[in-house]
Amino acid sequence: MEGRDNNAFIGDSSPSIPGHFRWSTPAANGPDSPPPYATVLTDVELTGAKPSTERAAVAGSPVATATPTQDRDQWGKGIEFLMSCIAMSVGLGNVWRFPFVALENGGGAFVIPYIIVLLLVGKPVYFMEMLIGQFSSRGSVKVYDMAPIMRGVGYGQLFSITMLITYYSSLMALIARYMIDSFWNPLPWAHCRPEWLPNCVDSAPRAAQEPSGPPFVVTNNATSTTSSELYFTKVVLKELDGIDDGIGLPDLRLTLFLVLSWSLVLLTLIKGVKSSGKASYFLALFPYVVMGVLLVRACTLPGAVDGIVYFLKPQWDKIYEPKVWYAAVTQCFFSLSICFGNIIMYSSYNKFRHNVYRDATIVTSIDTLTSLLAGCTIFGILGHLAHVTGTTDVGNVVKSDAGLAFISYPEAIAKFEVLPQAFSVLFFLMLFVLGIGSNVAMTSCVMTVIKDQFPKVRNWQAATVIAVCGVLLGSIYVTPGGQYVLKLVDYYGASSIALVLAIAELIAIGWVYGVDRLCKDAEFMLGHRPNIYWRLCWRWITPGLMFVILIYNLVTLEPLMYKQYVYPTIAYDIGWCIFAFGLLQLPIWGAYAVYKQSGQTLTEKIRNSLKPTAAWGPLDVATHYEYKKFINED
Fold first, then answer.
1. Is 296 exposed, middle or buried (0-12, 13-18, 19+ CB in 10 A)?
2. 54, 606 contact by CB (below 8 A)
3. Which of 392, 393, 389, 448 is nearest to 203 (CA)?
4. CB atoms within 10 A of CB 398
């Protein structure tokens, strides 16, 4: 008796669900052929109508079915989906953003609100997006066949993820530059260059055979800057003091590294999920090998324990501050990559009965543990930096955001007495692999939308077009004024839009489509109904918390600045235009959906646009018919 895993046939261990049919007749033409006497469902039957009496009454024949859809790719193995989700969710934010955010918001005390937010926001949304993506086998735009009036959420998220992609690879270019520079002996940021004197301090002591240059000293002079910081701003970025006169031309070396980063993403996605699934093993597991090596090394350094204690020591007074909870929500939100469309996209390539509940639990747990592990590793090494420089407060040696990865950590490595080059290469290689894993997911999201709209487009064609556009747009961020543009685009094109679109997505799935309907879909697909914890979070708790965070964000809104630099007026105007364009996707596509709906009056058209389309449901024809029957009988 042959069957398919995604249709509750033989090979699927899920419990039998009322309304499902299991074949009792062997397939005559191999595993990919429909059973004997099977008939193909018509479009009318796919909408929920019953098959004709004549066709269903063939003596001894099973109920009608059809050959499953073969057009959409699927993961080669279920483990590839899990590894891809880990590679996507565990990224740069875990290594350089979480430790700094935790330190700034109460240290060990921050972990408490973070775990609470994980349970009330992160995990429920992650599971919800996995459910809806796997159930529908649709990308982040086409999935809104469940509520056509909300399709603008998908297009808004597509715009936001595109903005992210344009600058994410520029960060990969910076990481690749540092990784290659790490092979030099001594490390190029370890010592001051003549043109930086006299207000420069070596990041590492000079060897006895290097008499030139100032000695390594600890100074409290406010005007002194470490060689690692000057190397980042003056050599790597060639950063301008402002962008009033333009952003300059792209740096040649960084542009070449940008091309390298996109080339690796292109090669990973050349065959869609079939190739990215194979690469996911390395992208997901290798960073943990490096992180383990770095953690062991960090724990053996003098002062490392003080750094780890400084990171984990709770500052209980901060737990009552609203900004700490706001930081926990935003960190959980961006760390897990929820409400960007990536999770829906990845799960859409699953087999229909894959256990997404298990995978959602594993990924969200691993993401949190990785953040804590990375924090201990980073602050163990920064504790050594504080010990060497004679500083008792570890917070004084920490730079925020990108500065943690490109200034504080390189400066700490430069002080290693044993093999600083090897540990520097390992650190930046780990960051590079983490970044590639996240970028592959974001690029896949855009590819999936393209292929959903234009099925004849091949994977390599879509990936090539995206990669070329990525290099062209990414070259803006490798100019001397590129970091100013990056900050602007990140704030207006990604962070601010994402929060509003996240609330819109939760409303679309939890209220327009409905939690009850979602639970029925889960029951049909997985064989059990989500419990009250999930239902309360999806309907009330998660949207409520996100709405409170949005209000807090608007109340505490301040003008965007980069290193105390106030942007010219035209820059703010461009930023607000980017923000408006992303949000306008909601009313534009909502109005279009209403216009395209059948109905005699506007009210009837709006009512129909709030309902799933006739084609909504599993893509497989037989499973689709059984789903319609299951919904109608319930």
1. exposed
2. no
3. 389
4. 24
Condensed to tens digits (0 to 9), the pLDDT of residues 267-277 reads 999 999 999 99
Is the separation of the CB atoms in 105 and 327 below 8 Å? yes
Q: How far apart (Å, rounded) are the C-alpha atoms in residues 158 and 345?
A: 11
Residue bearing tokens 């699953």: 350
Classify 201 as helix, strand or coil.
strand
CB 448 within 8 A of CB 140: yes
Beta bridge partners of 201: 226
What residues have CB less than 8 Å from 17, skipping those under 6 apart? 8, 523, 524, 527, 630
Q: What is the pLDDT of residues 540-597, one digit of tens each?
A: 999 999 999 999 989 998 889 988 899 999 999 999 999 999 999 999 999 999 999 9
- pTM summary value: 0.85
Q: What is the pLDDT of residues 509-549, one digit of tens each?
A: 999 999 999 999 999 999 999 999 999 999 999 999 999 99
Contact present, 154 and 144 (Cβ < 8 Å): yes
Region of residue 212 (left: phi > 0; alpha: psi -120 to 50; beta: else): beta
HEC states along 515-541?
HHHHHHHHHHHHCCCCCHHHHHHHHHH
448 touches 345 (CB < 8 A): yes
Q: What is the 3-state secondary structure (H, E, C) of 427-486?
A: HHHHHHHHHHHHHHHHHHHHHHHHHHHCCCCCHHHHHHHHHHHHHHHHHHHHCCCHHHHH
Q: Residue 394 in contact with residue 367, Cβ under 8 Å?
A: no
DSSP 8-state secondary structure symbol assigned to residue 314: B
Q: Which of 170, 181, 261, 183 is nearest to 228 (CA)?
A: 181
